[in-house]
Give the backbone structure.
Amino acid sequence: MTPTPNRWKTLDKDLGRISQLESATAYVGRPMVATGIALAFIAVTALAAAVFFGTAPVNLVVVAAAAFGAYMAINIGANDVANNMGPAVGANALTMGGAIAIAAISESAGALLAGGDVVSTISKGIIDPVSVQDTNVFIWAMMAALISSALWVNLATWIGAPVSTTHSVVGGVMGAGVVAAGTAAVNWPTVGAIAASWVVSPLLGGIVAALFLALIKAQIIYQDDKIAAARRWVPILVGIMAGTFTTYLALKGLSRVLEIDLATALLIGAVSGVAVYAVTRPMIRARAKGMENRNKSIKTLFALPLVISAALLSFAHGANDVANAVGPLAAIVHAAQFGDFAERVSIPTWVMVIGAFGISFGLFLFGPKLIRMVGSQITKLNPMRAYCVALSAAITVILASWLGLPVSSTHIAVGGVFGVGFYREWHMERRLRGNGEKKPKVKQIGNDERRRRKLVRRSHFLTVIAAWVITVPAAALMSGVIFLILNALTG
């Protein structure tokens, strides 16, 4: 019997529904792939720790800590690394894939090659070690700090807010320490200095980035002969970048290899800057030949320095900040192995490996969200603006080291993005009002349209600021609750 046309239509509809169901299932299941890979990495880390340490009850604590350490490292990669790579991606100097590859290599190299030999178990003197006499209490306090800081960074990544990993750990240690030993155990002047860095870090980063952008506009962009101005100024700016990053790496990225004071680091940076200027000057002159006298041509000269600066920032971040993040894990390992605790302990190589690989996994699986937010959703960046942000991050850390101020690399980098955006708003308003300078005429617009054209998205600005302010208290509250639960479960 020959099928009727209606039967074929019915079959086609059924097949279409099945096809749509398969597509919908794949679409819904796609976000679960990253979560599944992350869980697999955590499970492998715990299994490796179990094989390495055996199955004695005390060492099961280390196995659990290793799993939470891997979870923390994944969250660092998802959140913290975006601050270094976001501007380069937003300026189209790097593709997302290229940024992830460079960041993964640089962060891992920084953590494994130049990561600190020792780390403060009390997270920069937040808690007096004398106040915590019981080793088990100390272990559960560090475990609570590790879990709470990882959960907070995960939540911040989910809502799209770049936060300081170090501040999260500080809050976690403080909260568990208060519950375990009372408020007298907390070094409140140190906590106050860290709270002050919430304001100091982004302000310094924003001001430095805005000043360099103003310099580039005045000396290059608004010159009649932009190419001639670029031939003169771009080698100087690249030399400043080289000197600054050499100093930055000497101070923050090479502590494991060689201990260098600020004066020596500045001297090394000055020599490096002059050398790079001498090499760069003829290269820029040769590249500038035949370029059109317009801004688009100038922007291409900043692309390569921007990529190099992003890689160096990631290397320094891996060397400096990862050790702080895995500090609680290192403290737990030391206490479980030796039955006591010290203010500073050595970081086992396998702990740094967890940090390095966890960052790479977190960056690859979850990093693009924050990279896009920092690079393009706060304000529009081009290679010149992104270069100013990267340079301000390094200069601000050096200034803070000189002044003895505790600052956050996350706050500095994002503050630099805000600084560039707000400077552009101020500059646009200045031109709209007419300041008597010989600049291109700008069409006058109404107040409503002017508000609509704000160059910094206020929703992201308020979200980020709110997340910064509540990071320490939120992590502290979560840590205190988790410590009470752990303490009750272990009797």
